[in-house]
Amino acid sequence: MNEVKVLRSIIAFLNGISRLLLKIWVRTEVVGAKDLTQNTSDNHEDRADDSAKPDKVTFYALPQRSYSAALVVDSETRKHDLPHALESFEIEGKRFNNRVIYLSRSEGNWFRRRNMPYLHPNVPLMFELNKANPNLDIEIIPVNVFWGRSPNKEKSFLKIWLGDTWSVTGPFRRFVSILLNGRNTFVNMSQPINVTQMQAENSKLDEARFLRKLGRILRVHFRHIRTAVIGPDLSHRRTLVHRLVRKPMVKAAIEKEMQDKGISREKAKARAIKYGDEIASNQSHSTIRFLDILLTWVWNKLYNGVNVHNLDGLKKVYKDNEIIYVPCHRSHIDYLLLSYVLFKNGIVPPQIAAGINLNLPVVGPILRRGGAFFMRRSFKDNPLYSAVFDEYLHAIFTSGYSTEYFVEGGRSRTGRTLKPRAGMIAMTVRSFLRDSHKPIVFMPVYIGYEKVFEGGTYIGELRGKSKKKESLSGVFKTIKDLKKNFGKVNLAFGDPIDLNSYLEQENPGWKQQDHGADYRPDWVPKAVSNLSLEVVTQINKAAVLNPINMVSLALLATPKQSMDEKILSQTLNLYRDLAQDMPYSHLTQLPEGDGQDWIHYAEEMNAIERLKHPLGDIIRVDEEQAVMLTYYRNNVIHLYAIPSMLACLFINNMKMKRQDAIRFATTIYPYLKAELFLHWQEDEIQPVVEQWLDLCVEKGYLSADGEFLVRPSVSSNDYIILSVLSEQVIQILERYYIAIALLQRSGSGTLTKDEMVQNCSLMAQRISILHGLNAPEFFDKALFKNLIDELLERQVLSLDDEKIIFGDSINIIAEDARILLNAELRRSILQVTLN
Q1: In principle, which of 105, 155, 379, 420 could form an S-S bond with 532, CB 3.0–4.6 Å?
Q2: Residue 225 backbone dihedrals phi, psi, to 5 degrees
Q3: Are residues 529 and 492 part of one domain?
């Protein structure tokens, strides 16, 4: 007995020495340990409150036998106050040398090794212990240890050892891997598997069958984690490109190219290969690791922090699905930031669709090796390029890569979420129709900046300057901006959209239908259009408020973009309270602090300026600051669209029947929804409006008088607050009235759609000059085009020989506009229309 104790002491001592030696060299990033620590703490508290609660016994599962990995797990469990992995313990008379179990062990000679299934001695003991002691709660925590994260495509002998791949490693190669990549070790601790519960649910299985099932569950789990962290096995890039031209769709396009251009098969095939080479990414772990180091330095220079929200929502779906990240597009920083956040949280960075304009010397190859694949802005008139690109996307999706693309097409210069361009989503849907064995989930991502990197460029473009082409010299010119402070960034993952479920909703039984040779059935275009709108709607649903957004909402609602500091602070607190009492969605996040804190922060960020005054300081913005604040306001204006619309009704009407207010709101809502991508369906909006009216009455911004709702006195603070709130959507309503007034003035059948958009834009531009509006998006042609499209979609307007025609319903809409806009503004719009 004493000899056994001595032996255990020696083993514990050797483990301690080995752990210390490994700790000198190895540096780890750990995901999941904090959640497990919290769960362990909660369980201890529960057992303290309930003595009848079963004791918990914890084991750690590793995919293959590895002493070095076990030492890392032991070190991390000690660091995070979890049951120590390599400690021996005895429970109910059964002695366990440690808490680690392995699922396989490496066998073979130096030149040929493979993993063989392995039944660890702890596993049968665990089964017997659980069977004999129902009061025990036995759990297994799956743990993956990656000595670096590298796709399996490096060419040099040294790079084969740089990181974990899908190949089997022996002791010597593992030793070299630790030496080369020990400082880039990644540990993933998953949620525990409850063996006691699993055994109770499978009580009819004998021991051998139960243990096989448990092993199978763990192996599948480890395979999913490995794919998510290091990515799927990669083919050589050249092999992939040459494989594309052998696909039926590309072969047919080559035949067509030969006929249309009168060229030989070899020349057409060479052209297809050239297109594939231009498109395909060349993702390299060494480049990703380099970018990780570089971007860590850049973010520390540029930003005060990156706040990540709802990462758990992503973690619930990324293991078992092909993830397509669909972020909003505000800056070139977007795709770098998203890949960085994913890599830091143990998720393999996606393949990213980038515009061909970014394929610059030096920069292009780095982006390509970081995971970018390049696409031309338009390829409608190039069937061969289109076929190659389609096949490349299909190869990515079916190989299990995560992918990222921007549904808005380009960066938003106004801060608004842009109307989606459905091209990439259409290609995704067609690929899924061809092969749906791998589930696809769209993950909307909202990215909000307190100071956008390209702010100065956007101001110039909004004022009429032509967009500068991306160039290498432009990249070097941005280096000077690294000295500036860009505040914090918020990155929020939205609610996932399961493609299979969405298609089933759009066209039940779609999997059993014939989709045709080119996978373009008649029902797909409408489904793609609806899905595109759903994606941008879900992006907006995940919006996060920051101090600059809040200050922008308040200051830009005043005539001169200036406000007494105390009143501004009160107004900001009002916006905070409204967002807390009636959040736009369950994902809505508010900044820390209160109105006064946000004013000081905005001042530090040079977003506002202070004018000292004996009776109280004035907070104001100059012309350039006002334009940029418009950008940040537009990021989140949709969060306050409904209360702002209701405020407009009562600013221009002293009192109104409650039912009339609801009717006006539900009539106007579809146009607000179309422009701001609001998430409520039209049949859902009435109860939302009623809740907002009740809240306004509760807060004192309105009062109830029988069936009427009455606004506060014009001289009261509540009226001022209501007035400020109304300004958030007033410009949308003004554009709406400009279009209606122009149609009435011009008459039915006189204007084409393009003429209508052009005239509306010119009228809005003139009004903005006359009224001193520092909001260039007020006369944005794209917004008027979207409004006309919505009126056509709702059959208020129609086209006849390209001319816009309409009936008497336009007069009813014009009459409703009188309720929403004050008389002075209506006269101004009508005056410009007459001119």
Answers
A1: 420
A2: -65, -45
A3: yes
Handedness of CA 742, 748, 751, 753 (dihedral sign): positive
- CA gyration radius for the chain? 31
Residues 581 and 708 occupy one common structural domain: no
**pLDDT value, residue 152:** 38
pLDDT value of residue 253: 92
Q: State whether 702 and 641 are in the same domain.
A: yes
263 in a domain, yes or no?
no
**Helices 658-676 and 781-793: angle between axes, nearest 10 degrees:** 120
Residues 616 and 642 in one domain: no
State residue 830 phi and psi, 5-degree precision.
Answer: -65, -35
Q: What is the SS3 assignment for 391?
A: helix
Number of neighbours of residue 583 by Cβ within 10 angstroms: 13
Per-residue pLDDT of 322-349, as tens digits, reads: 999 999 999 988 988 999 999 888 888 8
User: pLDDT tens for residues 751-786?
Assistant: 999 999 998 888 888 887 777 666 677 888 888 898
Q: What is the CATH classification number for the domain harbouring 362?
A: 3.40.1130.10
pLDDT of residue 157: 37
Q: Please write the tens of the pLDDT for every residue from 375-428.
A: 988 887 899 999 999 999 999 888 888 999 999 988 888 888 999 999 999 999
Based on the fold, state whether residues 346 and 397 are members of the same structural domain: yes
Over the range 765-798, which residues count as b (16 or more CB within 10 Å of their CB) and which as e?
bebbeeeebbbbbbbbeebbbbbbebbeeeebbe
What range does the domain containing 92 cover? 19-230
How many Å apart are CA 144 and CA 146, to the nearest integer? Answer: 6
Residue with tokens 């941005």: 478
Is 524 domain-assigned? yes
Q: Could you tell me if 681 and 804 lie in one domain?
A: yes
Quick one: 115 and 215 in the same domain?
yes
Residues 566 and 679 in one domain: no
3-state SS, 412-466, equals CCCCCCCCCCCHHHHHHHHHHHHCCCCCEEEEEEEEEECCCCCHHHHHHHHCCCC
- Provide the domain count of the chain: 4
Tens-digit pLDDT profile for residues 562-613: 999 999 999 999 999 999 999 999 999 999 999 999 999 999 999 999 999 9
